[in-house]
Design a protein that fits this description.
Strands 3, 4, 5, 6, 7, 8, 9, 10 and 11 form a 9-stranded mixed sheet that branches. The chain has a two-stranded antiparallel ribbon with strand order 1-2. The relative contact order is 0.17. The protein starts with a strand and ends in a 13-residue tail after the last helix. It has one domain. 19% of the residues lie in helices and 39% in strands. The protein is an alpha+beta fold. The mean pLDDT is 89.
């Protein structure tokens, strides 16, 4: 609900204001795992989190129904848009693996040796994702999302989202600082506002 102030200066909400929702890739359908090298001895492993990977819920109708049930929104308030989250930078906590882009790529031997064996043994891979809604919004927000990638097939995975938050300008600077320290240099200024 859009916050507003009436003529008397009292805060409130406009009951019929439209609202927005954001979905996350690979939460409703299998994502692709791409392997360089062999399955049992990979040199690089990519988990592709593109906007073409199915979201859960998978449609604006499903989102509207779910949100109405959980938040008890008035009937005259409508979903204006349901847009996907675009991964622009990612990190694998506890490892040096991090990069810009929407494909999580395990390159370091530590990440591959430890994580790949655990992942194929049905243990989740915890990841941090940073990005925006896939829409042109004036003053758009930058978000941090955390989730667990779980194997669903030999070359497929799904993501279980564990948290999402809008980043403050200070938090954005902190994440950008980590991006700027990557070797070789990445074009972090194109990603971060």
């Amino acid at each position: 609900m859009k916050p507003c102030v009436n003529r008397e200066g009292e805060r409130g909400v406009e009951e019929n204001s439209p609202w927005l929702a954001m979905g996350f890739p690979c939460t409703g359908a299998n994502g692709r795992i791409e392997i360089k090298g062999t399955y049992n001895s990979p040199k690089m492993i990519s988990f592709v989190l593109g906007t073409d990977c199915g979201m859960n819920p998978d449609s604006a109708v499903s989102v509207e129904r779910m949100v109405r049930e959980k938040l008890d929104l008035p009937e005259n308030s409508r979903l204006l848009a349901f847009t996907p989250f675009v991964v622009q930078y990612w990190e694998v906590p506890g490892f040096t693996d991090a990069d810009i882009g929407f494909a999580i790529e395990l390159r370091s031997s530590a990440a591959i040796d430890g994580n790949w064996k655990r992942f194929t043994g049905n243990q989740p891979l915890h990841v941090k994702l940073y990005g925006r809604e896939n829409t042109w919004v004036q003053g758009g927000f930058f978000y941090a999302a955390e989730g667990d990638l779980r194997i669903t097939g030999r070359n497929t995975f799904q993501m279980k989202l564990t948290s999402v938050k809008k980043l403050s300008p200070e938090e954005i600077d902190e994440v950008k600082g980590r991006c700027d320290q990557l070797k070789p240099k990445r074009n972090c200024s194109d990603v971060f506002p």
